[in-house]
Amino acid sequence: MDETVEPVAAQGEGGGRRGRGAAARRASRAGGGPNPSLPYITRKIREYEVLDEEGLALIEKNADTILEEIGIEFREDPEALALWKEAGADVRGERVHFPKGLCRELLKTAPSEFTWHARNPARNCQIGGKATVFAPVYGPPSCGIWTATADTPRSRISAIS
Known about the structure:
The protein is an alpha+beta fold. The protein folds into two domains: 46-110, no CATH class; 111-161, no CATH class. Helix content is 25%, strand content 15%. It has four helices and nine strands. The termini are far apart.
């Protein structure tokens, strides 16, 4: 029996399995290539109050107690320790203890919204205001953020460790 093998049409030629290869799958996962990403979602519904003022005050009181008595460690980060000391925190070694009310006062100086700039300006993220940003729970929003740690002294893309 004479078996003849038909050559498979190359990608781009008519009749082949065009657009089903690994490159096409990668392009579809990447959001379609170099096109700009979709804009962030703008919240148009009214905000919902989960707790009343009494509940919020209780959480803030307990947070102040934990921050003052236990504190937070900033390992191998002398610059952060110096900034906290300058802001009025009690720095003991690598542990920072925050006097009651300090964090609340510092939060008053933070902007209510800002732009998180990505390497690709088309992928900048608006944070705060009525913008809704969906982000992985293991790190910052996926806006092309690079990090460096003691284990990886060179910058690397953020990832689950």
